[in-house]
């Protein structure tokens, strides 16, 4: 399946950005061919740092490409690149689709009829029961369950799908060979045997916090819709729901008690237009007319993108014609009394195709 070993090896060089590969392709690079010195020199025209170019020049050798290929085969890790016929059609529709997907398990599931099921890591007994019932019920209608293998709702959705003899895909925020959380080892091994575990991160990548918002766009991107079962008002599950809306997919939410912290996010989603779910039929009826394998083009206009309060404030500080340095952003946000993790917010805005990062830690509005 790995017919693009150069691209796979390039993707595994640390610090090589998604945009750098995009620029190479725009310059005429054929991903099955070596990267010439001439093309690397031309990257300077796109503002790629000379240190990044030099790293590619030094590390992307014939021996390194062969070593990466051997290592993946030894670990029984499959790869599908953006240029393979097997690459999921749905995932091609998102902003910044992964150039390479690393897979353990059944790669054919990536093009199955799928629904994302996500939720809090600290569910109530009610949330766990709902996750079990809905995941098992969706499997009966031949839906593949996609989630992030996190503790709580994610893990319960995977487990219930497998127990119901259905199919499930775990999208990791680590390398496909890194089990996180560690107590999910048995679940991970079962998904590898009976479903699929995938990641866009090279093997060995550890669970860095910034990776998980980036991972969430793949969970929604592979799915025809996203079902949220219990989520706090600000959580990773809502990031997944946001991506789902921007990608033109359906969003479903399970209502819960207004006194429950774990229900505040789902109640807000319903208030904002997500479909309220009382049973499996509410989901199936909404999606039954969908032509699987085809979806509307991604929505990139601001009026169609749902930003939370912090994302909106950061976005408003970034101008379309004058780049702003990250230090200036932090200073202005601190004046407003906002102490959020600015790096995570910027990653989300980039993935939503709202802003672009320029050399020198500067940002500009698209």
TrEMBL record:
Quote the SUPFAM superfamilies the UniProt record gives.
MCP/YpsA-like (SSF102405)
DprA winged helix domain residues: 307-360
One BP annotation, GO: DNA-mediated transformation
Q: Which residues form the Smf/DprA SLOG domain?
A: 79-287
InterPro entries annotated for this entry? DprA, DprA_WH, DrpA_SLOG, WH-like_DNA-bd_sf
Protein family per UniProt: Belongs to the DprA/Smf family.
Q: What is the protein named?
A: DNA-protecting protein DprA
Tell me the classification of the organism that encodes this protein.
Answer: Bacteria, Bacillati, Bacillota, Bacilli, Bacillales
The gene from which this protein is expressed is dprA
């Amino acid at each position: 399946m790995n017919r693009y070993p150069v691209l796979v090896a390039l993707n595994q060089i640390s610090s090589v950005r998604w945009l750098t590969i995009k620029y190479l392709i725009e310059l005429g690079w054929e991903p099955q061919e070596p990267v010439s010195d001439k093309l690397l020199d031309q990257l300077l025209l796109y503002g790629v740092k000379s240190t990044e170019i030099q790293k590619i020049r030094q590390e992307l050798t014939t021996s390194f490409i062969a070593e990466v290929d051997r290592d993946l085969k030894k670990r029984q890790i499959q790869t599908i690149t953006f240029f393979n016929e097997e690459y999921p059609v749905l995932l091609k529709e998102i902003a910044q689709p992964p150039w390479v997907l690393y897979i353990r398990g059944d790669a054919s599931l990536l093009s199955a009829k799928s629904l994302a099921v996500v939720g809090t890591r600290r569910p109530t007994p009610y949330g766990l029961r709902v996750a079990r019932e809905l995941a098992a019920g969706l499997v009966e209608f031949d839906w593949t369950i996609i989630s992030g293998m996190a503790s709580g709702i994610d893990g319960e959705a995977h487990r219930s799908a497998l127990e119901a003899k259905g199919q499930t895909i775990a999208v990791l925020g680590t390398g496909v060979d890194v089990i996180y959380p560690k107590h999910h080892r048995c679940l991970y091994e079962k998904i590898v045997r009976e479903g699929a575990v995938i990641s866009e991160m090279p093997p060995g990548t550890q669970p860095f916090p910034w990776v998980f918002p980036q991972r969430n766009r793949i969970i929604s991107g592979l799915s025809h819709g996203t079902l949220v079962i219990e989520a706090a008002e600000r959580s990773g599950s809502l990031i997944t729901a946001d991506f789902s809306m921007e990608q033109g997919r359906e969003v479903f939410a399970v209502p819960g008690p207004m006194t429950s912290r774990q229900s505040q996010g789902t109640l807000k989603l319903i208030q904002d237009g997500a479909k309220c779910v009382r049973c499996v039929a509410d989901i199936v009826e909404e999606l039954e007319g969908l032509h699987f394998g085809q979806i509307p083009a991604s929505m990139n206009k601001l009026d169609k993108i749902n930003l939370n309060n912090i994302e909106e404030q950061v976005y408003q500080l970034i101008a379309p014609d004058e780049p702003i340095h990250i230090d200036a952003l932090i200073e202005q946000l601190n004046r407003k009394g906002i102490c959020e993790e600015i790096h995570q917010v910027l990653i989300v805005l980039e993935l939503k195709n709202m802003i672009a990062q320029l050399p020198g830690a500067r940002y500009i509005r698209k």
